[in-house]
Amino acid sequence: MSLTERLEQALDYQQNYETKVREAATYLNDEYLGFIFKDKRPQFGIVLGSGLNDLAAVIKKEAVIPYKDIPNFPVPTVEGHEGNFIIGQLEGVPVIGLQGRKHYYEVADQPFNTGILQVIFPVHVLAELSVPNYFVTNAAGGLNQEYNVGDIMIIKSHINMMPSPLLGREHDFKTIKGEKLQRFQPMNGAYDADLRKMLRNATILSGNYPKKGTYLAVTGPTYETEGECIAFRDGLHADAVGMSTTPEVIVAKNRGMNVVGFSCITNKIAKDGTNATNHEEVKAVLESEETRKLLTGTVKNFFGLYKEKTDGLFDVECV
Predict the structure, then answer these.
(1) Among 17, 63, 163, 284, which lies 20 to 30 A Cα-Cα from 308?
(2) At residue 315, does pLDDT exceed 80?
(3) Rounded distance, CA 260 to CA 201, Å?
(4) Range name among 56-70, 77-91, 104-118, 247-261 with the lowest pLDDT average
(5) 306 annotated active-site
(6) pTM of the predicted model as reported, rounded to 2 decimal places
(7) Catalytic site residue 91?
(8) CATH code, domain carrying 91
């Protein structure tokens, strides 16, 4: 593709972004959701981050649609991100599972801000489908010295060191309640307190006492230097560091969704800031039987508790 063609493609994506999001949402609603759940709506979108594909196995699937088959939907290029849009139920709760995400580092070289627009595309699609809750998962390095490999950290807040996904022109989307989007989006309480309590109880039921902390997002794809780790931990008081999540949460909050999520601690960063890890080691932790059992059990327990609390409000009979 020539430079001119690349620029034209990027400009079209930016200028017609709302149309592209709505095309994807309309396709999913008309071809799948309208038949599977009829007049009901999925209650959660849950994004399955790096190495967390096993969580997809606990979803009672009604449809699995490859991202590449959905109009305009961004396809991940990173190993461990399968790229499937899963429609089904989790412990009786209707959900959409996003099996894999697009990271900013994959598309940061694209012109006209289109890289970050791809990162947040699935969140906008969920909002167009009126999904009220967004559940984020990720793999992260443990900055907090009390954290160990395999721990679950419930995200109580975040520090975003990526470009804000709200930069640039205002979009003509609405919140899931039909209200105008806020231009200057407050981010206090970004992670819903009630859902966090439920996630804490779900983790305990899985036999693990969870941590709670602040997630710091950097662009990657480099792992952090000693100086960066010390600055993030001692200066910014971050508890874990990763390469995703925050742009999605900013947009989910902007669209009026409730957010909850956790980080799986895949490597422990030393007190002196040494972060001696690589992608293979991170994957090995996530693929271990103990970690897989904990994560899967926690997610199942969370949706079981959510079902109990809201029993009867969204019961569906899939066709």
Answers:
(1) 63
(2) no
(3) 13
(4) 77-91
(5) no
(6) 0.94
(7) no
(8) 3.40.50.1580
Task: Look up residue 201 and give its two tokens.
Answer: 């109880």
Reply yes or no: is the peptide bond before residue 221 cis, omega within 30 of 0: yes
| Residue 318, in any domain of the structure | no
Strands of the chain, DSSP E:
44-48, 60-66, 84-90, 93-99, 133-142, 152-160, 211-217, 240-242, 258-268
Whether residue 97 is contained in a domain is answered as yes
| Cβ–Cβ under 8 Å, residues 282 and 267 | yes
The reply to whether 319 falls in a domain is no
Q: Could you report the per-residue pLDDT of 74-123, keeping only the tens digit for each?
A: 998 876 668 999 999 999 999 999 999 999 999 999 998 999 999 999 99
Residue 63 is among the residues annotated as catalytic for this protein: no
Is 81 annotated as catalytic? yes
| Catalytic choice (72, 244, 254, 301) | 244
Residue 210's DSSP bridge partners are none
Contacts of 46 (CB under 8 A, 6+ apart): 55, 90, 95, 96, 97, 98, 134, 135, 137, 299
CA 197 to chain centre: 19
User: What is the count of structural domains for the chain?
Assistant: 1
Which of 31, 238, 13 has the alpha carbon at shortest distance from 119? 13
User: How many angstroms separate the CA atoms of 124 and 272, rounded?
Assistant: 40
**Residue 158 falls in the annotated catalytic set:** no
244 as an active site residue: the answer is: yes
